[in-house]
């Protein structure tokens, strides 16, 4: 068996692992990158990029179908060629993943090992049956995989996860989506708009990442106007019948029905890939899911020589978070000294549904837990239903709720369902990270007519509730018509 002595061993060559590799290499040349699966990040292969390709196709169809209110009549309904749609998704997906593969292939050969690594102890790893690695520091960046209840296997090969969907050669006729979270909402709505019969089922009433009850209730109502959405479904049974997945469930009218679908898409979450790493051979403290407990500022597991980053950390499964965590973990591992806190940015998340969902900074639930019933934070809001630019574009569905601290006026966060949420979320996240007050935000420029004027309306409402400004004026002259 080959023996390698190294300063840093990194398990996983995804977004977090690559970030850790680059950061560690800034301090030492003795860095080993270990990967068991294909190169190419989760985002590029089965996540954010291929899903956006499918969504882009769905948006084109929807724009054509929604042209009539503008006085534009489409005489022939658009025809969706499923094979062509999926061909572009696969080709562009492979192109994005190829960029990552090319990057890894440029790394020195002596820095890369293929195989499955397991801990022998805190400092020793065995890769398959061919290599023993002695490492001063280790970074776990093994990513995650789709997770779903065992009874979903009742539908046998009719069960798919999003990893499978992007390899389709054609679009099916029908799909039952379980899980109205980020993946389920994005893919469910996109497939619906591409002509697939879709029903989305959830448990417990949650929708995406939303925690604000007002935004969540509004979002559910608006999305349910377009496609079947039951966030608290009562599914009595599921099984495979012929080449279909058959569901017996109580529908939204309270009736018991039986329906068959070509596929059951499980979008019920992901679990960290930490369960087959031999962590029982280390002295790490694990949570109830078998994930090492780590400091979110240093990514160090306790006081050990082991760090963790990305989806494996069970913190925030988002590419930018994985990249930041990987950089912090790799920097601390590479320096071989006492771990120091790295830059952690303001939380920001976006669901690319239509309208989009976005969350920034502290969530409503977090603020309720922190402040309890003392009314120490205030909420401002705006509806986009009559907002000028939104109405011009017939994108006038949406609600933004913004939060700030009583007394100081410090802007704390926001939850939103509406047009241009991906862009508004960035502006608001910068405000949180810069510790701006609501008054300071209102001093910033707002052009007319733009969707961002809705942000100003929400902030004015919030400022009044903080007792730091006047009551909001409806249709104020300075704002321009329809602001």
TrEMBL record:
Residues 7-326 form the FAD/NAD(P)-binding domain. InterPro entries: FAD/NAD-bd_sf (IPR036188), FAD/NAD-binding_dom (IPR023753), FAD/NAD-linked_Rdtase_dimer_sf (IPR016156), Pyr_nuc-diS_OxRdtase (IPR001100), Pyr_nucl-diS_OxRdtase_dimer (IPR004099). Its cofactor is FAD. Pfam families: Pyr_redox_2, Pyr_redox_dim. It comes from the Bacteria. Its EC number is 1.8.1.4. NAD(+) binds at residues 179-186, 269. The active site is at residue 448. FAD binds at residues 52, 142-144, 311. Binds 1 FAD per subunit. Keywords: FAD, Flavoprotein, NAD, Nucleotide-binding, Oxidoreductase. Coiled coil: none annotated. Residues 349-458 form the Pyridine nucleotide-disulphide oxidoreductase dimerisation domain. Disulfide bonds join 43-48. Belongs to the class-I pyridine nucleotide-disulfide oxidoreductase family. This is Dihydrolipoyl dehydrogenase.
């Amino acid at each position: 068996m080959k023996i390698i002595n190294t300063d840093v061993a990194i398990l996983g060559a995804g977004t977090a692992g690559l970030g850790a590799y680059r950061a560690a290499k800034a301090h030492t040349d003795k860095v080993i990158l270990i990967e068991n699966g294909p190169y190419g990040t989760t985002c590029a292969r089965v996540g954010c990029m291929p899903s956006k390709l499918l969504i882009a196709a769905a948006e084109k169809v929807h724009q054509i179908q929604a042209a009539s209110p503008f006085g534009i009549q489409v005489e022939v309904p658009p025809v969706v060629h499923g094979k062509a749609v999926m061909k572009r998704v696969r080709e562009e997906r492979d192109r994005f993943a190829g960029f990552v593969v090319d990057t890894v292939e440029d790394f020195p050969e002596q820095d890369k090992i293929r195989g499955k690594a397991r801990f022998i102890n805190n400092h020793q790893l065995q890769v398959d049956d061919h290599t023993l690695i002695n490492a001063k520091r280790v970074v776990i960046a093994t990513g995650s995989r789709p997770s779903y209840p065992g009874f979903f296997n009742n539908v046998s090969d009719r069960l798919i996860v999003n990893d499978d969907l992007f390899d389709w050669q054609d679009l099916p006729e029908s799909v039952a989506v379980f899980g109205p979270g980020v993946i389920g909402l994005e893919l469910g709505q996109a497939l619906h708009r591409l002509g697939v019969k879709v029903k989305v089922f959830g448990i417990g009433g949650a929708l995406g990442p939303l925690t604000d009850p007002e935004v969540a209730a509004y979002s559910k109502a608006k999305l349910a106007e377009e496609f079947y959405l039951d966030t608290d479904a009562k599914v009595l049974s599921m099984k495979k019948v012929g080449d279909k997945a058959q569901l017996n469930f109580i529908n939204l009218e309270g009736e018991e029905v039986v329906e068959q679908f070509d596929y059951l898409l499980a979008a019920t979450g992901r679990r960290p890939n930490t369960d087959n790493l031999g962590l029982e051979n280390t002295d790490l403290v694990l949570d109830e899911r078998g994930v090492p407990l780590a400091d979110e500022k240093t990514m160090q597991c306790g006081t050990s020589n082991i760090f963790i980053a990305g989806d494996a950390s069970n913190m925030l499964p988002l590419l930018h978070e994985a990249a930041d965590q990987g950089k912090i973990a790799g920097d601390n591992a590479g320096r071989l000294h006492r771990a120091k806190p790295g830059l952690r940015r303001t939380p920001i998340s976006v669901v690319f549904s239509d309208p989009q969902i976005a969350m920034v900074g502290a969530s409503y639930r977090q603020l309720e837990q922190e402040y309890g019933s003392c009314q120490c934070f205030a909420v401002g809001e705006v509806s986009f239903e009559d907002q000028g630019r939104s109405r011009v574009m017939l994108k006038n569905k949406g609600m933004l709720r913004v939060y700030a601290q009583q007394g100081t006026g410090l802007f704390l966060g926001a939850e939103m369902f509406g047009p241009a949420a991906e862009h508004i979320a960035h502006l608001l996240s910068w405000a949180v990270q810069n510790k701006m007050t609501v008054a300071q935000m209102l001093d910033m420029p707002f052009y007319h007519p733009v969707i961002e004027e809705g942000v100003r309306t929400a902030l004015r409402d919030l400022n009044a509730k903080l007792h730091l400004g006047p009551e909001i004026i409806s249709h104020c002259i300075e704002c321009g018509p329809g602001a």
